[in-house]
Amino acid sequence: MSQGNLLYAQSGGVTAVINATACAVIQTCRRRKVGVFAARNGIIGALREELFDLSGLEAAGTAALRHTPGGAFGSCRFKLKSLDADRAHYERLIAVLRAHDIRHFLYNGGNDSADTSLKIAQIARALRFPLNVIGVPKTVDNDLPVTDSCPGFGSVAKYTAVSVLEASLDVAAMHESSTKVFVMEVMGRHAGWIAAAAGLAGKRADDPPHVILFPEIAFDEAAFLARVKATVERVGWCTVVVSEGVKNADGRFLAEAGTTDAFGHAQLGGVGPFIAQLVKTRLGYKFHWAVPDYLQRSARHIASKVDAEQAFAVGKAAVEYALAGRNGVMPAIKRVSSTPFKWKLVPVPLTTIANVEKKLPRSYITADGFGITPAARRYFEPLIRGEDTPPYNAKSGLPEYATLKLKLARKKLPAYRIADK
Amino acid sequence: MSQGNLLYAQSGGVTAVINATACAVIQTCRRRKVGVFAARNGIIGALREELFDLSGLEAAGTAALRHTPGGAFGSCRFKLKSLDADRAHYERLIAVLRAHDIRHFLYNGGNDSADTSLKIAQIARALRFPLNVIGVPKTVDNDLPVTDSCPGFGSVAKYTAVSVLEASLDVAAMHESSTKVFVMEVMGRHAGWIAAAAGLAGKRADDPPHVILFPEIAFDEAAFLARVKATVERVGWCTVVVSEGVKNADGRFLAEAGTTDAFGHAQLGGVGPFIAQLVKTRLGYKFHWAVPDYLQRSARHIASKVDAEQAFAVGKAAVEYALAGRNGVMPAIKRVSSTPFKWKLVPVPLTTIANVEKKLPRSYITADGFGITPAARRYFEPLIRGEDTPPYNAKSGLPEYATLKLKLARKKLPAYRIADK
Question: ipTM higher than 0.90?
């Protein structure tokens, strides 16, 4: 029996560096002479037998993936339920893999994807289909357990810290007669990792950001307003970073868009303007607010070099794990030391990853709940080190991002309909 | 009589490259052996006799200004009224200049500042105080007449085009099961220059942005919704760029924060979420929206090299004009050719600049009102060319922005009170 082919699929929100992982997967497969496919739009494409055949993908385009944001093959928000509830989906998936002689499945995502990967490994065993399932870590939320950090996070962290630094220089220049309070909303549904990274912008007392609002700390309106007022009176102005996931003492999000995504999570957005309006109403200060939204997680132009390297490394390791016959594991980043920063990859069981969310440790948040501690700095700082600037086109002034000519593999099975969500 | 000293002041919203202008002013004064001061927080500091004495400023810090965003000496939103209405202010200003032997005044701002500069030149003449007043162009809005572009604009244009490109790659990857419509709000109170620059992100048909909403085109809800629907049905997803200044057919802003700035302009913000919600309500598509706000005009990390060079050049020219005895002029950028891009500086009378707003030409907007034309591309493209990346700190991973030790000159006059605004 041949070693079979490998299928790579992206899952959930994409990042500035997930395509670096894809690049490593393709390049490693080629070097190891393994056929490589990518599912179109993640698991949905796998079910529909929409598989991009990457065998003929030109080398230059593949290499350009390393510095291209977004998800080159498409991702999805689609969660397979239990083996009982979604039995037909799982069986279809195995049929698709079998039809294309796929013996290695790499699922590049977060906690939900780790859970799905485990179920796929389980059904493959039940159906006696030899399959190596490898989870590949990715999430800007940085909320996977076990791994020191998640590829994608370092870059959004760098974007956020640089943006807070730059916008605060603007506010500092204008505060005498204009904006006194600047509010920036950042991503992080349940964990304050991105909000905490914003704290790297400041080094000394009274450097911005002056206030960080974390999902881990219940919002205390009176304490917050007192802090903003004291900062404006002492410094002249105040920069506030607020995580989209901030909740009040009752556990309710401060601002909810009222809609939910495919996983049943509330779709958030708007806590930035909410906080800014609160400051205006209660303290009377002129304000501005920013919500960078997708800009923060797609900002490949300001990616962290460490993050891009880790994203590439996990892709390469995942292929090697699969070809070595490992199953149900994920390459996790293990920090060997912070100073100097050293790390290595180790295989960890997906059972330790699936459905577990890693919260920001309380020890990373100052006692008053509004800032980050030296321990947090030691953790975060190495992750945003180094630049990995994409090539720019001299004429257009824009980054040269990959535009791949992708080709779907010929279908071998009858069409399969996924019920509309 | 000596050649006297020079006072430099920043006015209005700051930019990613206004400090490059300041850098050029200081370096040129030093080379020409002219004493140089900067007003703290713009004209407000000049009235209060708060003048930073830049004679002793260290060379490294001065050089670092070239790549530092924000306004190093502070700016302000404070408009002097007519000579009659604000006579006391104008006389005080001349008294301050006289006390510090300032014979050259450089005012770095937009249309309002050009108007103020003219009035200062007029009162100096009336009071027989020999003073050369030079306007120095600056505004992210790019709405000054005569000059080909305004320093500060090229960098926000580059930031905007790159951000739209990157965020759209994210949306493209997610659209199958998540966000279908992404809305990004950009600055531009009355003119759609920044919105138009976003159009540079797309090269071919169906490249993002798919819809641009300009202040110059009255918002037509039905046509907009039809365009978004057709785009989603054809492409699968849709990126919309909306200028903060978009108005409906009655000339009212689509979304107003309800407050006004010091000039009586309505403080805008929130048209992005407004448009996104409209799409959701009327078409039912999942959406995300971004409002980068100050991030766009302070993003020195992605500054345009052409813009940074022009910002530096106008500072140098302004000093040279003043020392040559010119008065009431501004260095304007004259485009010699687009291909290859060549430009030079020419002195133009401030009377041609003051209070005139340059609108985006209708010929830059496609007939349907939702995109940019090839003529627009020829104009915009050279302005975002080249990168001028700031140095980064290897340990912190952040740009090394200037932190100056500024020293106020000893006051020579009694205190002066500016009525609270």
Answer: yes
